[in-house]
Amino acid sequence: MFRRLPEDLLTAVPAVTIHIDGRPFVARAGDSVAAALLASGKAACRTTAVSGSLRGPFCMMGVCFDCLVVVDGRANQQGCLVLVAEGMEVETQRGARDSGLRQVVLPEGEHRSAQGEGTPDRPRK
Fold first, then answer.
1. CA 65 remoteness from chain centre
2. Within 13 Å and on the Cβ side, how many CA atoms surround 117?
3. Percent of the chain with pLDDT over 90
4. End-to-end CA, the chain
5. Which domains does the chain carry?
6. Which of 28, 57, 122, 124 meets the CB 3.0–4.6 Å disulfide criterion with 34?
């Protein structure tokens, strides 16, 4: 399904070394993380939270969220929208990752976001 253009067509494209699950891989400058994953032979970049099913890049334009990976320690990054950078660490995302938001149980009738700023229609009291 995915095949790189021949090297002789890309003579001026510099190499970028990234690490995918701890292993070095030489990508091309301008590649998205998802393209680099596919070029490395890695078809799946995450597992689902409930069943553990494998998922990999699908739409390559930020719509499907099947290319979620951990980039430099930040979970839930859409690999198709992030460009590779020298020394970047990319990890397979396994299951659900902490979004950084807290679930807050509020008294009945009180509404606010997890960070406590309130919402436009219901400001914090």
1. 8
2. 4
3. 52
4. 54
5. 7-94 (3.10.20.440)
6. 57
Q: How far apart are CA 103 and CA 114, in angstroms?
A: 6
As a whole number of angstroms, the distance between CA 112 and CA 25 comes to 44
Neighbouring residues of 2: CB distance < 8 A, sequence distance ≥ 6: 35, 38, 39
Overall pTM surpassing 0.85 (yes/no)? no
CA-wise closest residue to 93 among 63, 125, 66, 61: 66
- For residue 123, give Cα distances in angstroms to 66, 106, 113, 114, 115: 35, 14, 10, 13, 13
Rounded Cα–Cα distance for residues 66 and 55 (Å): 6
For the record, the structure tokens of 62 come out as 């930020």
What backbone torsions phi and psi does residue 39 show, to the nearest 5 degrees? -65, -30
pLDDT in tens, 17-76: 999 999 999 999 999 999 999 999 999 989 988 888 999 999 999 998 999 999 999 999
What is the phi/psi pair of residue 89, to 5°? Answer: -105, 120
Element holding 23 (H helix, E strand): strand 23-28
